[in-house]
């Protein structure tokens, strides 16, 4: 399959290049016009017909302006410089947007930066906006010679000037700036938004490009370069802390792992809360893959196919947060939409090609661990030195480094067959020594022409866990072809091969679990040779006499591999049917196939005879749609456009797997090597279709009042015929108050208010309507086995419905140097599709119903400012998010619902409470009297659980805040990102386990006299490790007295921590220095005669600093339970240690 795909891709590339070559040799049609005075609008229309270009402008900008058409280019290649010269007397200029798209805008007076001039020279620099993002396509003009250059995709430019020249820099949506050339060969220029002219154009639903000022809802747009400042294997992680309203949590510190992303809170009790991802107009799967492998019953995190997208190919990311913004995507957009637009041909190189290349190397180091104790070794609290105790994983044994000898896990055998005691010493680095320095090397090369871009990316990752990592290869092709002045075809094709020889696991039996529970007297370095001498391939060498796996044996012999081929692409036809009437028709495909393979060597604790599993997955989604759009200006300053279209979505999935729980020949991993009667088979097929009709329209007045209306109707095959049609409308209003009220002076530069209302539906998975039989494996002799689902399906299901309201404002001050965007929203989600328990007398254990209403309300605030502008530029941005969630109702007779469990902690949904509430064990309390509320112990002085579970906390934060800073001076640019999360709770099962077995420094208190232990007698011997639990005991008179019972540390800590979720639940507050980069941009003089237009070198780092309220080694961000593709926050188990990364990045343009 891989070989065929490669052949098809190569053939496609050569065919397209041949078409472009033929296109390049066609003759340009010449038209001759006599000299005449015509309106500027007519002149622009004539040039559109001659050169097949498109001009974008406001009607007011060109109104009442007349020109001699002979001043404009009329034949040959289109000459933007000549157009600029003709427009300059009118106070206008031209800015290139794409390879055939231009904008006409007014020349606005700008600030002038004066630097002492010199003679002829070359100037390099970067054009950025007020957020520090590059401005691709910015036009730089030498006013002395009218020479023009265009900034590249990264905002870089190079221009040759005279020392006394003045540069005019202009771009659509920005205030023009003039800069006098001076001594410096490096000139970075920041442009401020121009809210008086053509508004910034952004990508919205269905790929429709619209003016940002016209939108009555909140969206967030980020330039692709911001995602590449410090590269991450998964592009979703690069959004963390950068977008208000978006919550991103990584399941582990392992690159390529699953990511939980929610927009404006979770709105569904049992359904998916992940947003829809759309790449170049094609919806792509973002479901996390974390199946429980049937051999060994471990959960493997294979990540998500959305991580297949290469950050190097991304031009921009747009987040559609509310239902109004995403309504046109239908039921799948109820959780929001993330639009990814990839890079394409830029139209700047009419005569040649542009080649860019970049390389990055990032190194990962595990650096935060629990505070393991290294003073006491394995065993129990009696100090026993017999093998049973010193070989256990609990750490209540004798004191280490005291010169004594004990029988240990690796004690040699004497001639008489007895074990020989060895030195009882500590190995404080036993955990750190296991983890390696991880690395990620990423190389990208791209070739860009006027109407195409072809890129290749290679990623090689090595994990911090030995024998783990992943590899990824991306090929991305974007092309466009004009069949006629009114017909254009574009295509985007992306192929990814993502594979790994071994993915780490995070539950019991993982390397992390084994290492973290390893007593201090074990030297982990001695475990690298994981086979017993003379028994290679047959018996592992274990630190726990075979009851626990060797961590290196787990890493090298209990492997979980995968190999995924992923193809996304679309072909789009755009036709101008008449003046103002266009048709877009498109078909897109998201297709992937994956093979998973798990191997278990003989002598594994869970699979002593070896085991093998192989699974083959296939998934595809095809979307075919069209959109008809009509635009027209009306009398009296009105204008409108309307669009109508349809979509058909077809999903298909197929999974087949086989597992052998026992092998005949050790080390031969093949289903045919399975022992008789140990093979299990499983298969699953599903199809789903949604047909849709939709329409939208906009009515505007004087370009400062915009009314939007949209509607969509879906017909889902997953719902019953009487409920499979659901309609959802939206309406929004945007008012540019600064234009309405003609505010032209003072601190306020721009003011916009927006309000919207919308309703959107959400359906369910296929086959949720009727019960059916499923074949089970293995067979019962010659009889085929089938089982009937114990969950009663519902053939009367209705779609979930979410109704949303949103109010917001966008403000800019001080000539646009300070910008504030604030939004308040509320969303009510009704008809929740949930599974509730039912009486077994019905023959079922549960049934599926519509029930419940969830409300999310919150604030989003984004602030962008430029405190310092000039030779030194400082840009700062902050994103604030606060969301509150409430369960309004469940259903008649049900006031609570068990959403899930993790390590004994329950996630309960209760009326009047919030999604994310955690319920667990706590201690009994004195009910009355002077000690009311104090802990009530049993008669022996030990903790006892309360009679019922109590609410321990909620895993959602009080608020989150991301702060970005960009400092630019000369050749240098420094970027930082701080990610701050306040509040919320998480339960650490790892903390509970470590403390109850004496593995951390928290458990040193009371171990001996030096650590505050009490002298006592346990009934057989005198000891100095006595401890008294703090609490009260019921006396015989009905009162309560202070506890005075003495117990040993093993009983004390085991009793105190192991029983109670409440004692192991912590604040989820953290502050992380998420990203740091320092970039040096070389000037043309520094690169000399090298054929390089731009060269940059960056020092990059990720997670350099981390502070958590829970303490080092306990990361609330990775406090998640992953199972069967579902991620539940709030519980931390045996995750990988926290890592920080540092490296270098090199960028080249030829």
TrEMBL record:
Q: Where in the cell is it found?
A: Cell outer membrane
Q: Which superkingdom?
A: Bacteria
> Which intervals of the chain form a coiled coil?
none
PROSITE patterns for the chain: TONB_DEPENDENT_REC_3
Query: Which processes are annotated in GO (biological process)?
Result: iron ion transport
- All copies of domain TonB-dependent receptor plug, residue ranges: 216-337
Membrane association type:
Multi-pass membrane protein
* GO cellular component, as recorded: cell outer membrane
Domain named TonB-dependent receptor-like beta-barrel: residues: 546-909
Any idea which UniProt keywords this protein has? Cell outer membrane, Ion transport, Iron, Iron transport, Membrane, TonB box, Transmembrane, Transmembrane beta strand, Transport
Major location (coarse): membrane
Is Transmembrane found in the keyword set?
A: yes
What family does the entry list? Belongs to the TonB-dependent receptor family.
The protein, known as = SusC/RagA family TonB-linked outer membrane protein
Source species, please? Chitinophaga sancti
């Amino acid at each position: 399959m891989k070989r065929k795909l490669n052949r098809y891709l190569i053939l496609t590339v050569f065919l397209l290049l041949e078409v472009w070559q033929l296109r390049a040799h066609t003759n340009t049609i010449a038209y001759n016009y006599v000299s005449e005075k015509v309106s500027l609008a007519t002149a622009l229309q004539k040039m559109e017909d001659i050169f097949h270009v498109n001009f974008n402008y406001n009607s007011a900008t060109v109104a009442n302006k007349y020109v001699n058409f002979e001043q404009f280019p009329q034949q040959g290649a289109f000459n933007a410089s000549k157009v600029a010269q003709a427009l300059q007397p009118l106070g206008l200029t031209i800015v290139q947007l794409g390879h055939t798209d231009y904008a006409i805008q007014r020349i606005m007076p700008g600030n002038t930066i004066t630097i002492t001039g010199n003679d002829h020279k070359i100037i390099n620099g970067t054009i950025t906006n007020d957020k520090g993002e590059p401005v691709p396509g910015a036009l730089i003009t030498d006013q002395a010679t009218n020479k023009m250059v265009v900034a590249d995709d990264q905002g870089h430019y190079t221009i040759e000037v005279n020392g006394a020249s003045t540069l005019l820099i202009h771009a659509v949506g920005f205030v023009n700036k003039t800069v006098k050339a001076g001594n410096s060969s490096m000139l970075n220029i920041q442009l401020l938004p121009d809210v008086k002219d053509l508004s910034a154009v952004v990508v919205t639903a269905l790929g429709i490009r619209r003016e940002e000022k016209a939108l009555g809802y909140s969206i967030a747009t980020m330039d692709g370069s911001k995602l590449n400042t410090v590269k991450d294997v998964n592009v979703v992680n690069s959004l963390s802390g950068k977008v208000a309203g978006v919550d991103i949590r990584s399941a582990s510190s392992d690159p390529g792992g699953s990511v939980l992303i929610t927009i404006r809170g979770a709105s569904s009790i049992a359904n998916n809360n992940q947003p829809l991802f759309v790449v170049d107009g094609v919806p792509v799967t973002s479901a996390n893959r974390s199946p429980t492998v049937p051999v060994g019953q471990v959960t493997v995190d294979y990540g998500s196919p959305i991580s297949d997208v290469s950050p190097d190919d991304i031009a921009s990311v747009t987040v559609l947060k509310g239902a109004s913004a995403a309504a046109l995507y239908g039921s799948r957009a109820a959780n929001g939409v993330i639009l990814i637009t990839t890079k394409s041909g830029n139209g700047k190189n009419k005569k040649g090609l542009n080649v860019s290349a970049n390389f990055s190397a990032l190194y990962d180091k595990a650096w935060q661990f629990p505070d393991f104790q290294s003073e006491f070794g394995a065993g129990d609290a009696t100090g026993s030195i017999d093998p049973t105790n010193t070989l256990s994983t609990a750490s209540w044994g004798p004191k280490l480094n005291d010169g004594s000898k004990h029988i240990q896990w690796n004690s040699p055998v004497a001639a008489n067959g007895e074990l020989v005691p060895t030195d009882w010493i500590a190995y404080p680095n036993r955990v750190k020594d296991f983890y390696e320095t991880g690395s990620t090397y990423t190389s990208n090369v791209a070739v860009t022409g006027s109407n195409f871009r072809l890129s290749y990316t290679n990623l090689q990752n090595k994990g911090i866990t030995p024998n783990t990592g992943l590899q990824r290869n991306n090929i991305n092709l974007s092309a466009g072809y004009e069949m006629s002045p009114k017909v254009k075809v574009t295509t985007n094709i992306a192929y990814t091969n993502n594979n790994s020889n071994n993915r780490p696991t995070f539950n019991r039996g993982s390397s992390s679990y084994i290492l973290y529970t390893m007593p201090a007297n074990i030297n982990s370095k001695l475990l690298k040779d994981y086979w017993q001498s003379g028994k290679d391939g047959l018996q592992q060498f274990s630190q726990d006499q075979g009851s626990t796996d060797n961590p290196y044996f787990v890493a090298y012999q209990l492997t979980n591999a995968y190999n995924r081929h992923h193809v996304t692409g679309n072909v789009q036809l755009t036709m101008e049917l008449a003046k103002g009437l266009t048709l877009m028709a498109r078909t897109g495909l998201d297709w992937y196939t994956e093979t998973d393979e798990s191997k278990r060597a003989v002598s594994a604790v869970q699979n002593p005879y070896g085991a093998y599993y192989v699974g083959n997955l296939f998934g595809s989604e095809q979307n075919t749609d069209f959109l008809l759009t009509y635009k027209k200006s009306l009398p009296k300053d009105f204008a409108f456009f309307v669009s109508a279209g349809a979509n058909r979505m077809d999903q298909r999935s197929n999974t087949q797997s086989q597992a052998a729980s026992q092998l005949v020949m050790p080390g031969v991993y093949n289903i045919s090597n399975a022992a008789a009667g140990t093979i299990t088979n499983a298969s699953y097929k599903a199809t789903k279709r949604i047909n849709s009709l939709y329409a939208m329209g906009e009515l505007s007045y004087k370009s400062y009042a915009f009314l939007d209306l949209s509607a969509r109707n879906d017909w889902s095959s997953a719902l019953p015929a009487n409920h499979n049609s659901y309609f959802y409308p939206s309406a929004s209003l945007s008012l540019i108050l600064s234009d309405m009220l003609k505010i032209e002076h003072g601190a306020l530069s721009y003011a916009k208010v927006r309000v919207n209302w919308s309703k959107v539906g959400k359906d369910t998975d296929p086959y949720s309507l009727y019960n059916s039989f499923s074949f089970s494996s293995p067979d019962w002799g010659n009889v085929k086995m089938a089982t009937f689902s114990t969950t009663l399906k519902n053939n009367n299901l209705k779609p979930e419905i979410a109704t949303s309201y949103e109010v917001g404002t966008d403000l800019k001050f001080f000539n646009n140097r300070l910008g504030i965007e604030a939004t308040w929203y509320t969303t009510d989600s009704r008809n929740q599709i949930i599974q509730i328990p039912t009486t077994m007398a019905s023959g079922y254990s549960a049934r599926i119903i519509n029930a419940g209403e969830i409300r999310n309300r919150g604030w989003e605030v984004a602030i962008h400012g430029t405190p310092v502008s000039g030779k030194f530029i400082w840009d700062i941005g902050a994103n604030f998010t606060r969301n509150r969630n409430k369960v309004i109702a469940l259903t008649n007779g049900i006031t609570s619902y068990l959403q899930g469990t993790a390590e004994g902690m329950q996630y309960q949904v209760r009326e009047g409470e919030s999604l994310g509430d955690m319920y667990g064990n706590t201690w009994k309390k004195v009910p009355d009297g002077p000690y009311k509320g104090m802990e009530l112990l049993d008669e022996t002085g030990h903790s006892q659980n309360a009679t019922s579970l109590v609410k321990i906390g909620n895993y959602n934060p009080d608020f989150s805040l991301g702060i970005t800073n960009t400092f630019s001076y000369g050749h240098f640019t420094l970027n930082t990102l701080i990610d701050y999360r306040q509040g919320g709770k998480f339960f650490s099962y790892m903390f509970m386990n470590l403390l109850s077995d004496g593995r951390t420094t928290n458990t040193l208190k009371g171990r001996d006299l030096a650590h505050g232990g009490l002298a006592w007698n346990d009934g057989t011997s005198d000891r100095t490790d006595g401890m008294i639990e703090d609490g009260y005991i019921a006396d015989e008179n009905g009162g309560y007295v202070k506890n005075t019972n003495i117990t040993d540390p093993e009983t004390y800590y085991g009793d105190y921590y192991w029983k109670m979720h409440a004692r192991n639940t912590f604040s989820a507050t953290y502050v992380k220095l998420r990203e740091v980069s320092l970039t040096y941009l070389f000037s043309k003089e520094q690169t000399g005669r090298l054929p390089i237009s731009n060269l940059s070198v960056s020092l990059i780092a990720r997670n350099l600093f981390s502070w958590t309220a829970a303490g080092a080694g306990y990361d609330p961000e990775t406090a998640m339970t992953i199972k069967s593709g579902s991620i539940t926050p709030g519980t931390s188990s045996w995750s990988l240690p926290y890592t920080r990364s540092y490296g270098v990045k090199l960028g080249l343009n030829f």
